[in-house]
């Protein structure tokens, strides 16, 4: 049976400049779902990126009532552990609900959000075909730069060498391949192992 485990954890304060700081959260994904190019991933996202994701998902799935994000309150205090943890829990619940919807799982922006560190602008450019790389390419490139999961790297070495693969059944990116993000983006044969 397919599963998707998502954890939002490890809030950290990041400084933008001497006057502005924000908190970002680690998003950890572990799955055996055919919808995902990578079976494990770990990225960091801030609250306003979650807001962007929700807006984009809502504009593409008008008939679906998306779950709410934790409210953006003017009284939010980054130095208050209760405030930070309450927001973290709300972000995790938001992602858990979204990942249960097959239509939302077909949105490439969701996969880029969860499995790359691309900015919202770069995610939009990738999804609209304005980059030299596909959604799956972006996810694989990020995974190869972020070697926190040596087990997956070892599994890939044992399996097919996806760099030499010619099994791209949807090189145009328009039709789904056998093991792709359901929006039709190419996937690596490495994901066939799970």
Automatic annotation (TrEMBL):
InterPro entries: PX_dom, PX_dom_sf, SNX10/11. Belongs to the sorting nexin family. It is a peripheral membrane protein. The keyword Transcription does not apply. It comes from Gavia stellata. Its main location: cytoplasm. This is Sorting nexin-10. GO terms for molecular function: phosphatidylinositol phosphate binding. Residues 150-194 are annotated as: Disordered. It comes from the Eukaryota. One of its GO terms (biological process) is cilium assembly. The keyword Protein transport applies.
């Amino acid at each position: 049976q397919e599963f998707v485990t998502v954890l939002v954890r490890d809030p950290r304060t990041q400084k933008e400049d001497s006057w502005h700081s924000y908190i970002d959260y680690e998003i950890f994904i572990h799955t055996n779902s055919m919808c995902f190019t990578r079976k494990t991933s770990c990225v960091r996202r801030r609250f306003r990126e979650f807001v962007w994701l929700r807006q984009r998902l809502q504009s593409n799935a008008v008939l679906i009532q998306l779950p709410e994000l934790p409210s953006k309150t003017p009284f939010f205090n980054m130095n208050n552990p209760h405030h930070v943890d309450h927001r973290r829990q709300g972000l995790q619940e938001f992602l858990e609900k979204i990942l249960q919807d097959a239509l939302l799982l077909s949105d490439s922006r969701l996969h880029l959000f969860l499995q790359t560190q691309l900015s919202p602008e770069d995610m939009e450019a990738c999804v609209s075909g304005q980059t030299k790389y596909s959604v799956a390419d972006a996810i694989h490139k990020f995974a190869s730069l972020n070697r926190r999961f040596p087990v997956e790297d070892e599994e890939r070495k044992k399996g097919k060498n996806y760099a030499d693969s010619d099994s791209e059944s949807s090189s145009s990116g328009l039709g789904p391949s056998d093991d792709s993000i359901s929006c039709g983006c190419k996937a690596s044969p490495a994901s066939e192992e799970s």
